């Protein structure tokens, strides 16, 4: 251990997404290759000597206790735990969460060291994994509110690869087998559903970790919600959601030294007649078992919506993935979606 193939794969995966900024400490990690990366894992991160690094992924993450702070992380999956190597700016982002993060190293801030926090979720504490719509994100749930993390991969391939690797690692865990199921008769098995709502698809892994996938009803609920926002202008049965994607809305920051832009996470939903931007809660739903009350905000909150027939043109950037798109609408009454786009775009 480790094989040449694994080291090559981990080296290839060790690339920070170009559109996201990371701290100096994480830039150092992103610069490591092959054996140096594995040695870094064993000397700085691994908690026991005989654990193996199996997978590496860069992703934005959200924590249940700080649902409004999305932070960049290097996610490392080993045979014992999932490690989230976090951007050090996150610790100071939410001051009232000081009980959640141990700040004993704060006196080192002005030294030449670059510190990162590492959040550890042991595989033995893992209870369920909820996969989001169209594999755009997934939520890992442990036994308490401190152990709920959502990885916003915004990429179905990365989600699929991580889930596969996680299942493979969980298969190695020695857990006590579940008790034998009691034989149920036909009526108790199919007649005990008190609600008419279909349950989500659940796959119970041999390690007893649940992998929960969304069902068709979630798309139906989303279509109904979108139709509500359209003020009944459309016929619900004919409303189809053509595209659901986690994206960023670009807001240019005025008066900064260089022409910088802030990225606001949004859920983009395209129907046959409209384009919507939603603020979505990726961490609170479905409700964890220990939750005493519903979340403070709805799962979907409409941020903006436009009719496709008002779309004048789409400007495409020439950079590689992720692609930047600018939608220009000609509805005079409602200019707020593209307020930053002026004729200067075609000038100097």
From TrEMBL:
Q: Where in the cell is it found?
A: Cytoplasm
| Residue stretches making up the PLEKHM2 PH domain | 114-178
- What GO molecular functions are on record for this protein? kinesin binding
GO CC terms: endosome membrane
* InterPro entries given in the database record: PH_domain-containing_M2, PH_NISCH_C, PH_PLEKHM2
What GO terms in the biological process aspect are recorded for it?
Golgi organization; lysosome localization; regulation of protein localization
**Residue intervals of the Nischarin C-terminal PH domain:** 241-347
Q: What keywords is this UniProt entry annotated with?
A: Cytoplasm
Protein name in the entry: NISCH protein
Q: Which organism is it from?
A: Edolisoma coerulescens
């Amino acid at each position: 251990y480790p094989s040449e193939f694994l080291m090559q794969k981990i080296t290839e995966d060790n690339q920070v997404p170009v559109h996201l900024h990371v701290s100096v400490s994480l830039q150092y990690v992103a610069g490591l290759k092959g054996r140096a990366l594995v040695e870094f894992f064993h000397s700085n991160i691994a908690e026991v000597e005989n654990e193996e690094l199996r997978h590496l992924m860069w992703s934005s993450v959200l924590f249940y206790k700080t649902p409004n702070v999305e932070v960049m992380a290097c996610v490392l999956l080993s045979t014992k735990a999932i490690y989230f190597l976090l951007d050090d700016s996150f610790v100071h982002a939410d001051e009232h969460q000081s009980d959640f993060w141990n700040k004993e190293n704060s006196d080192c801030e002005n030294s030449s060291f670059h510190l990162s926090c590492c959040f550890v979720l042991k595989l033995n504490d893992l209870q369920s994994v909820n996969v989001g719509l169209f594999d755009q994100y997934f939520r890992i749930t442990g036994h308490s509110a401190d152990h709920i993390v959502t990885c916003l991969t915004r990429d179905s391939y990365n989600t699929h690869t991580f889930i596969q690797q996680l299942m493979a690692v969980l298969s190695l865990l020695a857990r006590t087998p579940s008790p034998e199921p009691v034989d149920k008769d036909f009526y108790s098995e199919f007649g005990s559903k008190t609600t008419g709502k279909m349950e989500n698809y659940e796959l119970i892994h041999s390690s007893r970790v649940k992998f929960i996938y969304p069902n068709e009803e979630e798309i139906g609920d989303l279509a109904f919600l979108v139709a509500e926002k359209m003020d009944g202008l459309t016929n619900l049965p004919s409303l189809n959601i053509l595209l659901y994607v986690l994206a960023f809305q670009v807001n240019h920051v005025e008066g900064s030294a260089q022409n910088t832009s802030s990225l606001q996470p949004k859920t983009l939903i395209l129907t046959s007649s409209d384009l919507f931007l939603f603020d979505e809660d990726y961490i609170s739903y479905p409700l964890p078992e220990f939750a005493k009350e519903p979340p403070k905000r709805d799962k979907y909150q409409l941020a903006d919506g436009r009719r496709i027939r008002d779309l004048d043109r789409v400007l495409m950037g020439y950079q590689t993935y992720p692609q930047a798109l600018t939608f220009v609408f000609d509805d005079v009454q409602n200019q707020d979606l593209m307020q930053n786009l002026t004729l200067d775009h075609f000038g100097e």
